[in-house]
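Quiz preparation item.
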């Protein structure tokens, strides 16, 4: 349920009303917009009399939210959320590009790529230290050592880092990571999501291979219900019957999510297609669809990459893409 307050409502009135709501057993989330203030009520609101609320002088409107996701709902928070990662902002018209290798392979590799993607316009460095792989025999990352190398690359270039977590027990290792990524396979790892809700750090939540938008937003809700509202959604393709691409990139999810939620949405064309030559057109299409950012895999030698070389582009190819990406974004926001 949300209660929209009239302009001119005082802080004392809001505080008194908030205390009354809390006495009814619900938690209150205040959103202060440019033109109105909204109190979002989370919990069992069935005992709250809407007619009583609407009779209050300070109340402009009261609405029940029928969707199961509450805090992630745009009705709950009408204005776009802007996620800050250091000096980088994502959402609300701010656009960011996350780029780097699928996995960290060596100090030389990650620092070289970090310098190259930064020079080409990337705002954040992505790189896997812990890698979930379908086969137990495939390279699964350098783990804690990989995190240390990412931090070295950050110190060298100033780029904030984005890397994937697989186990809640690893959270202490991610203390200096700027954005924690939850991969597609862990989108519904609810115990992990609950723990990430307890920390104050941006979470990049990827869509599961076969999950609906509603299920995806409910996973975001798990994190937000724990207190962490710094969520970035990432569309990375879903599994369909098509075999020419690794997954099917659902670009319709981008404008649909902007209708449903205030959270920023980025697109990963690398995992979505699994084909390096498809990354460029899908990146442009994602920006045209309204994406708030891109996540692109870049490797200095894709043929020898230890992970996902087929979908990785070279730094030179990446540099050729970014200029047009920013042009398209500027055109879309005129």
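Solution:
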């Amino acid at each position: 349920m949300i209660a929209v307050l009239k302009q001119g409502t005082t802080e004392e009135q809001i505080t008194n009303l908030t205390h009354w709501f809390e006495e009814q057993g619900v938690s209150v989330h205040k959103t202060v917009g440019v033109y109105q203030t909204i109190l979002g009520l989370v919990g069992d609101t069935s005992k709250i009399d809407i007619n009583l609320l609407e009779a209050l002088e300070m109340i402009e409107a009261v609405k029940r939210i029928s969707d199961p996701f509450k805090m992630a709902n745009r009705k709950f928070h009408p204005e776009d959320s802007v996620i800050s990662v250091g000096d980088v902002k994502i959402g609300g018209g701010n656009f960011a590009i996350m780029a780097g290798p699928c996995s960290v392979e060596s100090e030389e590799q990650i620092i070289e790529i970090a310098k190259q993607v930064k020079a080409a316009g990337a705002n954040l460095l992505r790189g896997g230290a812990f890698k979930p792989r379908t086969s137990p025999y495939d390279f699964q990352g350098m783990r804690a050592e990989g995190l240390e190398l990412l931090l070295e690359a950050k110190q060298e270039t100033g780029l904030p880092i984005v890397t994937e977590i697989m186990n809640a027990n690893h959270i202490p290792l991610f203390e200096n990571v700027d954005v924690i990524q939850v991969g597609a396979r862990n989108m519904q790892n609810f115990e992990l999501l609950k723990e990430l809700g307890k920390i104050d750090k941006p979470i990049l939540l990827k869509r599961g291979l076969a999950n609906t938008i509603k299920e995806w937003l409910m996973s975001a809700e798990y994190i937000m219900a724990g207190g962490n509202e710094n969520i970035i959604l990432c569309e990375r393709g879903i599994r369909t019957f098509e075999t020419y691409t690794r997954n099917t990139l659902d670009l319709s999810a981008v404008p649909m999510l902007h209708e449903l939620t205030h959270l920023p949405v980025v697109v990963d064309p690398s995992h979505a297609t699994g084909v390096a030559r498809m990354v460029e057109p899908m990146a442009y299409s994602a920006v045209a669809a309204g994406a708030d950012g891109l996540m692109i895999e870049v490797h200095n030698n894709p043929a020898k990459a230890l992970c996902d070389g087929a979908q990785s582009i070279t730094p030179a190819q990446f540099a050729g893409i970014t200029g047009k990406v920013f042009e398209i974004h500027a055109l879309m926001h005129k």
